[in-house]
Amino acid sequence: MATKPVVIVTRRWPALVEEKLRDAFDATFNHDDVPMTKEALMKAMGEADALLPTVTDSIDKDVIGVPHRRVRIIGNFGVGFNNIDIEAAKSAKIVVTNTPEVLTDCTADIAMILLLAVARRIGEGERHLRTGAWTGWRPTHMMGKRVSGKTLGLIGYGRIAQAVARRAHLGFGMPILYYDPYVRKDTLAADVHATSCDKLDDVLRQADYVSLHCPSTAETRHLINASSFAKMKPTAFLINTARGDIVDEAALVQALREQIIFGAGLDVYEREPKVHSDLMKMENVVLLPHLGSASTETRQAMGMRVLANVDAFFKGQEPADRVA
Questions:
Q1: Catalytic residue selected from 121, 167, 169, 243
Q2: What's the whole-model pTM score?
């Protein structure tokens, strides 16, 4: 009987996926769900044939470059892979995969939830009621901003952004602008009329809601900064379900405090899981704990996508979602 490949899973995954991994591989799981230290990740690289990390595990050049490395494939649990030093992986001839497509709708839902919640002061309203401060309906109480018919600007126009555009345009009659110099025209949603802008500033100046959907790279780090906020409407909102370091969080705090923009809805943070202490105190921002893909169906699908990629690799096939 052939020996099964050894895989190490860095965090707890959905029970269904862990069961499938156990059947397919000689799998070690993190039942305590405590983040693995760098030293533990380095040790795992020397003990397993495959490492299955999440987007919060830093797989840097030190982890990849351990002496006597055994790992030949890294199956990342997430569509993003900026947690992995891709160039180091390529140099070490380690295959890297991700989990695209399966989390598109779930993340798009969260973007719309944040947009609606911050515009209509939903978080603030619930806190108001739960603390017993509500004294009853009155005409000028807790008025928010309208969503229907307002302009949505999308930074990045890949799968998730187009799913947001579909919800906003078809569901709320929102005109759509987008900036994405890399998007292929043949991948655009046919059922949504969206206007492409040549410059990021064109979106920032015109949009009532700016939603971020670009990857985290050296090029996009602090793409949204003090200069960006100064170009936005004072009535505008920023929505971020992409990556935290796309936004200069200190500049965002200042923009919210000084009412340079009206509000923000965030699911990701620059120093996650740490959140800027001033954001925690503000009522004109809605904060979620990175829930973008957090539905049972989506997280199971992500896990099964990792399993399929790793299984293909050990069968001598090309993984469908290879990024390195």
A1: 243
A2: 0.95
